[in-house]
Amino acid sequence: MAKTNPGRFFEDYAVGDVLRHAVPRTVSGGERALYHALYPARHALYSSDEFARGCGLPEAPLDDLAAFHLVFGKTVPDVSLNAVANLGYAEGRWHRPVYAGDTLRAESEVIGVKQNSNGKSGVVYVRTRGLNQHDDLVLDYVRWVMVRKGDLDAPAPQTVIPDLQNVIRAEDLVVPAGLQFDSYDFVQAGEAHRLADYEIGEQIDHVDGVTVEEAEHMLATRLWQNTAKVHFDTTARPDGSRLIYGGHVISMARALSFNGLANAQTIVGLNGGAHANPCTSGMTIRAWSEVLDKAETGVPGVGAIRLRLVATSGGEPFALRGDDGKYLPEVLLDLDYWALMPV
Amino acid sequence: MAKTNPGRFFEDYAVGDVLRHAVPRTVSGGERALYHALYPARHALYSSDEFARGCGLPEAPLDDLAAFHLVFGKTVPDVSLNAVANLGYAEGRWHRPVYAGDTLRAESEVIGVKQNSNGKSGVVYVRTRGLNQHDDLVLDYVRWVMVRKGDLDAPAPQTVIPDLQNVIRAEDLVVPAGLQFDSYDFVQAGEAHRLADYEIGEQIDHVDGVTVEEAEHMLATRLWQNTAKVHFDTTARPDGSRLIYGGHVISMARALSFNGLANAQTIVGLNGGAHANPCTSGMTIRAWSEVLDKAETGVPGVGAIRLRLVATSGGEPFALRGDDGKYLPEVLLDLDYWALMPV
Amino acid sequence: MAKTNPGRFFEDYAVGDVLRHAVPRTVSGGERALYHALYPARHALYSSDEFARGCGLPEAPLDDLAAFHLVFGKTVPDVSLNAVANLGYAEGRWHRPVYAGDTLRAESEVIGVKQNSNGKSGVVYVRTRGLNQHDDLVLDYVRWVMVRKGDLDAPAPQTVIPDLQNVIRAEDLVVPAGLQFDSYDFVQAGEAHRLADYEIGEQIDHVDGVTVEEAEHMLATRLWQNTAKVHFDTTARPDGSRLIYGGHVISMARALSFNGLANAQTIVGLNGGAHANPCTSGMTIRAWSEVLDKAETGVPGVGAIRLRLVATSGGEPFALRGDDGKYLPEVLLDLDYWALMPV
User: Fold this and answer.
1) Of the partner residues C23, C30, C213, the one whose CB lies closest to the CB of residue A33
2) pLDDT tens-digit series, residues A140-194
3) Do A51 and A188 touch, CB atoms closer than 8 A?
4) Which of C53, C194, C213 would you mutate first to test chain B, the one with the most B CBs within 10 A?
5) Mean pLDDT for chain A overall
6) Residue in chain C lying closest to B232 (CA)
7) For B125-175, what is each residue's pLDDT tens digit?
8) CA dist C84 to C9, C12, C92, C107, C149, Å?
9) Does residue A37 come out as left (phi exceeding 0), alpha (psi in the -120 to 50 range) or beta?
10) Which residue among A72, B59, B162, C163 is buried most deeply as judged by most CB within 10 Å?
11) Tens-digit pLDDT profile for residues A266-311
């Protein structure tokens, strides 16, 4: 009886399957400190218990993206061990903050499958849920990946492509219970800009850059218990490079975006995202943002800002695609998300 | 009066001496988080407070090997500062888990000495005990090292070689108080294999590999307050390389062994171990295991599995020694340990 | 409206201005564990809750230098983003320890300005205060930096140079409330030397060295939320190197000084300091100390030792300046501080 996990192949997924992912994880102040060591994270709500209490939360939560990475990491052995590519995200929502002492687990439902015309692989759509120790929903999102077939003779399943929203409607965003910005301290937060100060279409160059190192992205990726070989093993890719986990780029870019978006405190929605080009050690990650939309939430004083967050390894800010409509080679990430901000 | 520690030389050890090692250490969630960042550790009992409670423990302990490294680190200034080689381990037992808030200290008793025939060095045997803030024994083990003489004219001591067990008897293994696997959740643990599914002689290739970096092994080795120069200082060895702490290889291999041994949750015995060849930055560590024995413990449902854990920097799995009987050059570690597993 | 922080230029500072720095920070066991992973820190008072309780404190505090770095980091966006050089420190005092759960914030008062004769830059003196969640003073210090002018036509301000003490008087040092060394455990602390064993003028070579890596200094500098570009971005300096945060060198040297000064437990005063030469990745940091003074404090049994701590990247110990009176090129740091030690 083989003991190691060979991962699932395309033919192993059927719409309606629910995969209970292994290895629940309890977080502490240790994960919070490491997040601050790995990324230049400075959003005050996640840095200071006092600031968080001033905003109606019991203490500073773990960064929203750390919660995302932890949940994502759990799915890797069941979803993407044999994946050829991580194709997209949609309908990601954060439902409640994660605090020190919380234990996260994850499960994914297969919501779509489509075999590729070459017969060698297919696309699998899953909706992943992160749950805490009370079985409360912490976050959920849809992800689709291209997965190899293990048995090329396995019959093609009936194609099911889920109907996914391009953008989460503002009224579907969840404001964490208790969160309010009535006595928000803009000085302590680091910038004076409120939602009213941002215009739709406005672009912000976040200026700073971080040159990334192998040791750092591996520490991060292990911290999320993400086991995909390509992030750790120089013998796993033909060119001997280690592919940096896309979530590392997301967190780096989001942290860099503090400079210009310090008050976009809480990530509540992930509308979509593309890892446009691979990131490897030695690249200097920069970021720019574009305001895509603004909206009210059900909580007075708490607004929602929809942002495009682009990470690059160089080039001019605000350049995204070439004349051919494809991402420029220096674009690493194109992310579309909702955050909460004082109105 | 010289203020710095010159370390002890061979002639400074006498059988019966008890060395009280310095710098007690309190651990927190920080050490636990760092362990997960440094190694691809996924054993559920050490990852999730909820899982640990399901197994009868109050919360997830610090990884057993982290406790070992912390105790080991304390011994370095007194035992191995002038060591030429770390020769072996025996009779290692874990007596109780370490939890956040516990403070560890260590002491070692000299239990054997044997001067080498060259008159320039000798072998020192110590039994090291790790104790917590209640003076409870946390773990103990025997280690022997070759130590240089400081004064070549010092007389050779009477040779004392301790009588050490090759293998800890199963009845001498300590099951942590309260531990039970009656409602063990194999799905959350990550694999379905119970002790009955493993056969003596079975070999498991753990498949995954991690290419190691200087920054990571130094972070780890400092975390355990291990001060041996060769791990940190490129000027300390003729070739300018830093020798990776052998315990870093042990933890890396043990974490990799999750894939195939996810239910070998708790390390309770260290029968022996050899650091077969030095590990340096840039190597890709892989691991394979061999089931050496299986046994019952005093707790129904909790079985013991005796495993050989081999870490390599390449080569074929399951290759250990050449025709000359020596370890193959790519073998880094050959460890013999007992772990607890659902029967 | 520009959204990113351009930093302040010389003409933006006026004596009497108080800058409230952004992003308060709550610390936990995570920051403490990371400090031990980043530096070979072994002072027992900061390593063990039990040892700290034996010295009258409620638990082991965060390392004093970690508190300093956290406060320093907060000042960077307001004080040194456009700095040409960090010129000096004075009158640094630690007023109370920082414990897990404490939240630190910082503010700086401009206490001096002097435009340079070239009209392109000037020196700004600030007194920075670190405060906890109870608005208690945690530490304060004076720092002066050379800052570029943004508008070369801005008029030169009236020169104000603060009157700073070269050395903090022993009677002005603050012994943390409750601290006593009456039942001090020299064995657990690691060395037998008490204040009486040190002579003024005595020099100590701390022997050990650590070769520094990019990943490590960036982890540390981010942990302190220090955002200065030169530490992270290989494109920010003409030679493509990353300049290691001076505080990283301070902490490394202080940790190395354990070997010979294990009982200089608590840093209570910073008399001055110079980052003599830049530190970059690959250098092997060593340290030596010189006893500059000894004094009583108001607490019987608790003495103060004034130390010069020199970090180097090579060369002979105790060599500091060349015949020209300038620091030797291998000298990285020349720090003058007070620490508390059993008499």
Assistant:
1) C30
2) 999 999 999 999 999 999 999 999 999 999 999 999 999 999 999 999 999 999 9
3) yes
4) C213
5) 96
6) C210
7) 999 999 999 999 999 999 999 999 999 999 999 999 999 999 999 999 999
8) 11, 15, 22, 21, 10
9) alpha
10) A72
11) 999 999 999 999 999 999 999 999 999 999 999 999 999 999 999 9
Bridge partners of residue C127, in order along the sequence: C109, C142
CA B197 to chain centre: 26
Nearest to A339 by CA among A38, A54, A65: A65
Cβ–Cβ contacts within 10 Å for residue C136, how many?
11
- CB-CB contact of B271 with B175 (8 Å): no
The per-residue pLDDT of chain C, averaged, comes to 96
> Residues of A with CB below 8 A from B32's CB?
28, 30
User: A9-42 b/e with 16+ CB inside 10 Å = b?
Assistant: bbbbbebebebebbbbbbbbbbbbbbbbbbbbbb
**CA dist list (Å): A1 to B192, B205, B302, B319, C294:** 11, 13, 22, 21, 71
Q: How far is CA C39 from CA A87, B196, B227, C5, C257, in A?
A: 41, 45, 11, 32, 11
**Residues of C contacting chain A (CB within 8 angstroms):** 1, 3-5, 20, 22-31, 33-34, 77, 100-101, 103, 105, 133, 213-216, 218-220, 222-223, 225, 227, 229, 232-236, 242
pLDDT average, residue stretch A256-273? 98
Q: Which two tokens stand for residue B60?
A: 């997830």
Q: What is the ipTM of this complex?
A: 0.96
How do strand C18-20 and strand C103-115 relate by DSSP bridges?
Answer: antiparallel
User: Phi, psi at residue B235, to the nearest 5°?
Assistant: -95, 0
> Which tens digit of pLDDT belongs to each residue from B67-89?
999 999 999 999 988 888 889 99
Q: Which two tokens stand for residue A195?
A: 């939602």
